[in-house]
Inverse folding.
């Protein structure tokens, strides 16, 4: 369902054509990373640390080389040593040295699963067997798995020389600065007068929340195939969200000029932020260099869990106050997120996003980034925002209840608007916050009675994501039949080929089917940012629009030539050039193009985008649940998910993002977690025990697209990929409360947790 | 960054680019600049700049006008 | 290393012969040996259904079948679902209903759903959800997939 305000109807944007790459994907013809098969190809496998924290004293690879079929072995000694070099990844800034060490550990292993060596052999089975012949001498060290343990005085340090960095307003406690720390950085925002705010409060709620790491859960494991050619040129075929990022990282780690690396994007089986960093490329490249063969490396599902990039676990303390009329007075928050083995969690974004929907004048918010002996966290769909929203939206729910206010009325009363200053001081642009809140409040789901039965409850929560801009490139070549080929560098994870093609088609007055979109490799298209951050339909769309506008200018110039008038005398409307001088002559694109060789040759245009106003997105979820008080099992009965898309380019795929993000959030709320044993090892590194939602766990997900146009895009588009995951966890938690009378303060809220919490509450009442 | 600015959280400065604004801020509040840029003058990792509600794409080279509000904010990355 | 064995089987109605090691799975041989890369590997331990094929009329995770077990059997993969002339109704409705985003789980879902509709052409929503619970999708939340399957029933 889409609600639109009064605005001009588009001809192509907003319709639902079949996506251009759809046929290949439903027939099994589309080629994903693991489908690459090259002559002479070898298979690489990785030896990984069994210890969560250890010093590497020695590695003896000689045994592996003796296994028949093994062609080469590499360790970190084969990688050029990195200087500390920061590279913009479109995601958290990465220190190249740390990325290299994460790919192949040098002096220490920092998590169970940390890569130590890699083998290339004629079959993946032989490569796996050869790993057992590699001898590693470890000095096992004590480890930490939680932010609280990592911050204790005397805690084992992951990086012995790391000192807490103050970022922007951060001011690390000087007492904690004696010696080194596992706290890599601290950020802080302070405003107004918090002490007065508490005095002005009729209600103050203060709570602590704990969350566990979860994985993005893409169905396709990480994969790469690399050939290091004799002339030094390196080709990488990989499933990645960011070809230019893979190029940058691979070139930096291998210490070769970037132009020597070509990255070919295969189709990608899901990313959600987890396929932006490189993991396998450095080892695969060195194995290829040593053998002269292409080397393919595919992670097993266990390796994906243990050695890619889940998101942070966390400990958060929230204190919020309000007047008896429901105006938020004070807002104090302390967020401590796990970064995993190397610095860089999304804690700052968690702090900023969770406060964005509200007007906050008196605040003191800290964001701590803390290393622990777990895999280095990577981005996961609106990184940080879902974790922050879980804590904040849960506390707001309690305040509303204490005040006797409807949860949405309480939020509307404090809703931020265009111009509201965020905690950073920067004002919000044109946003759809109150529009989304109002849609929630007026929706039949919100107003309907609960289904009959016991232990049923309804919960609601808001979510926010900034959306990012960044550069994209596009090239349009006009074909002799009047169709256009549109080349971009944006890997298509969720239907963006179509969404971008539709925007070019809109400008030129042609059909979506008349656009032939191609996703090109890094040698064949200009620099393009990540497919992620909810930027692709938005920014690559603008690049395609810009290229189409240039094509339009050329078509006008050709028509002017053909009519022997000036270009100013030609108007372009609905795919036709109109001769303003004669008032009646028209030329279609097909007619112009039929003569293009006589009016100057083939028509082609290239353009870029680098937008400054991505247009932030608000989302919300209403969820009804039924809880079995004996087992703690939660049945999700009904879900309605709301999102401001600005303008939905292809509504079916916008709905898909809302639904997909919503379901990931429900899984995060109810079941998903990294369960570590006391030995620091993940016990549930398979899909049997890492429990993601299945068809049987869910009802239909009712998506509501709200459209508050974004002035930063010609058609009003906002990014849509991420915000859907922000609201669900708190919405489910608030629903579970109303179903059981018990509030949860941790994630996941799995059956055991719910039963324990209910029992504890019952015992406390006695 | 009140502890650096002595409690001041909003002020007017002179300059036609952000780089010049930073020089002004540094002369008033020593220690400010290194929070924003490194020795080579590039933005510190984790830091971004907004003017009003728009992100800058030129970093410290971004020109600023008379009435512009400059905000130093954490860098944002998506997933 | 054990010597390879010869296996004779039928894949997508074509008599097929291949060499395989005793330890290789049907999934590996389909993909790397025969170039039928439409069947995908998600977990290699029978928990995600991305490798669903139809083996003698029954939907099966190809990662849990040894290639040698294909001897004398009849296998349908995603590559055999469409006819030479047209798409299967499931493929058509998956496209119309936008029931795929990244598409990696799509072959598994289409083959699994075909396995259902071949036997129960009027399965209701609950039956469809039950049947497909062995196929994981991380992108769609399943809503549009279930709708596409129900819509395909009308076009069989």
């Amino acid at each position: 369902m889409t609600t639109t305000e009064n605005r001009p109807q588009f001809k192509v944007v907003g319709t639902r054509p079949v996506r251009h790459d759809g046929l290949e994907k439903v027939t099994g013809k589309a080629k994903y990373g693991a489908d690459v098969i090259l002559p002479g190809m070898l298979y690489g496998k990785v030896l990984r640390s069994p210890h969560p924290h250890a010093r590497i004293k020695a590695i003896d690879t000689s045994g592996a080389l003796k296994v028949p079929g093994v062609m080469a072995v590499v360790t970190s000694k084969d990688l050029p040593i990195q200087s500390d070099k920061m590279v913009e990844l479109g995601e958290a800034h990465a220190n190249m040295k740390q990325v290299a060490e994460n790919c192949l550990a040098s002096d220490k292993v920092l998590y169970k699963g940390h890569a130590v060596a890699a083998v290339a052999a004629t079959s993946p089975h032989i490569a796996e067997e050869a790993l057992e012949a590699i001898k590693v001498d470890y000095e096992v060290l004590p480890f930490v798995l939680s932010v609280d343990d990592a911050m204790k005085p005397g805690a084992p340090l992951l990086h012995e020389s790391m000192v807490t960095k103050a970022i922007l307003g951060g001011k690390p406690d000087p007492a904690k600065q004696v010696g080194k720390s596992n706290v890599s950085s601290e950020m802080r925002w302070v405003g107004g007068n918090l002490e007065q705010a508490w005095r002005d409060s009729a209600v103050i709620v203060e709570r602590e929340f704990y969350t566990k790491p979860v994985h993005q859960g893409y169905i396709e494991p990480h994969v790469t195939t690399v050939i290091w050619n004799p002339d030094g040129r390196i080709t990488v075929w990989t499933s990645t969200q960011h070809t230019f990022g893979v190029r940058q990282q691979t070139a930096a780690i291998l210490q070769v000029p970037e132009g020597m690396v070509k990255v070919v994007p295969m189709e990608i089986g899901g990313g959600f932020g987890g396929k932006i960093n490189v993991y396998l490329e450095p080892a695969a490249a060195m194995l290829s260099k040593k053998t002269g063969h292409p080397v393919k490396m595919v992670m097993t599902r266990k390796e994906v869990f243990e050695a890619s990039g889940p998101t942070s676990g966390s400990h958060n303390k929230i204190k919020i106050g309000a007047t008896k009329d429901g105006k938020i007075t004070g807002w104090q928050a302390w967020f401590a997120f796990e970064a995993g083995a190397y610095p860089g969690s999304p804690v700052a974004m968690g702090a900023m996003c969770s406060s964005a929907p509200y007007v906050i004048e008196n605040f003191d918010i800290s964001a701590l980034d803390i290393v622990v002996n777990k895999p280095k966290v990577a981005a996961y769909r609106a990184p940080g925002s879902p974790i922050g929203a879980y804590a904040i939206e849960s506390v707001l729910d309690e305040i509303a209840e204490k005040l006797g206010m409807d949860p949405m009325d309480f939020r509307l009363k404090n809703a931020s608007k265009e111009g509201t200053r965020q905690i950073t001081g920067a004002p919000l642009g044109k946003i759809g916050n109150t529009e989304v809140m109002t849609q929630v409040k007026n929706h039949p789901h919100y107003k309907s009675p609960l289904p009959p039965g016991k232990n049923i409850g309804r919960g609601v929560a808001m979510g926010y994501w900034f959306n990012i801009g960044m550069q994209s490139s596009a090239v349009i070549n006009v074909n002799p039949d009047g169709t256009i080929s549109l080349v971009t560098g944006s890997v298509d994870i969720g239907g963006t080929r179509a969404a971008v093609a539709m925007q070019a088609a809109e400008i030129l007055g042609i059909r979506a089917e008349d656009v032939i979109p191609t996703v090109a490799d890094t040698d064949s298209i200009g620099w393009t940012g990540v497919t992620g951050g909810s930027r692709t339909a938005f920014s690559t769309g603008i690049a395609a629009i810009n290229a189409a506008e240039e094509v339009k200018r050329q078509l006008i110039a050709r028509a002017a030539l053909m009519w022997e008038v000036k270009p100013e005398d030609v108007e372009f409307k609905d795919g036709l050039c109109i001769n303003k001088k004669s008032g009646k002559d028209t030329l279609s694109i097909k007619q112009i193009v039929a003569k293009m060789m006589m009016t100057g040759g083939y028509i082609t245009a290239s353009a870029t985008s680098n937008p400054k106003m991505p247009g932030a997105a608000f989302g919300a979820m209403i969820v009804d649940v039924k809880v079995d008080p004996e087992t703690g099992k939660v049945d999700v009965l009904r879900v309605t998910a709301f999102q401001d898309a600005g303008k939905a380019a292809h509504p079916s795929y916008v709905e898909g993002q809302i639904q997909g993000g919503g379901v990931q959030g429900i899984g995060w709320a109810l079941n998903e977690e990294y369960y570590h044993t006391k030995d620091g090892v993940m016990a549930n590194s398979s899909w049997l025990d890492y429990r993601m939602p299945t068809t049987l766990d869910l009802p239909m997900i009712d998506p509501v697209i709200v459209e508050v146009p974004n002035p930063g895009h010609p058609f009003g588009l906002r990014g849509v990929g991420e915000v859907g995951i922000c609201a669900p966890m708190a919405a489910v938690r608030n629903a579970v409360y109303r179903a059981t009378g018990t509030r949860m303060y941790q994630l996941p809220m799995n059956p055991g947790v719910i039963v324990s919490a209910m029992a504890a509450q019952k015992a406390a009442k006695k | 960054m009140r502890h650096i600015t002595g409690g001041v959280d909003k002020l007017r400065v002179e300059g036609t680019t952000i780089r010049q604004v930073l020089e002004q801020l540094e002369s008033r509040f020593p220690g400010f600049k290194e929070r924003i840029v490194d020795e080579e003058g590039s933005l510190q990792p984790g830091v971004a700049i907004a003017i009003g509600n728009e992100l800058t794409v030129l970093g410290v080279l971004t020109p600023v006008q008379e009435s512009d509000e400059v905000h130093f904010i954490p860098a944002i990355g998506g997933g | 290393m054990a010597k390879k064995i010869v296996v004779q089987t039928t894949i997508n109605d074509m008599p097929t012969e291949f060499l395989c090691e005793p330890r290789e799975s049907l999934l590996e041989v389909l993909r790397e040996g025969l170039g039928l890369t439409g069947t995908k590997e998600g977990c290699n331990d029978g928990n995600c259904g991305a490798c669903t094929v139809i083996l003698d009329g029954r939907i099966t995770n190809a990662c849990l079948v040894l290639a040698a077990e294909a001897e004398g059997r009849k296998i349908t993969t995603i590559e055999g679902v469409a006819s030479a002339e047209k798409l299967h109704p499931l493929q058509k409705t998956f496209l119309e209903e936008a029931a795929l985003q990244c598409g990696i789980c799509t072959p598994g879902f289409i083959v699994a759903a075909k396995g259902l509709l071949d036997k129960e052409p009027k399965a209701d929503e609950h039956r469809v959800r039950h049947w497909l619970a062995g196929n994981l999708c991380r992108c769609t939340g399943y809503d549009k997939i279930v709708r596409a399957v129900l819509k395909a029933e009308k076009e069989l």
In short: DSSP finds 20 helices and 30 strands in chain A. The radius of gyration of chain A is 27 Å.
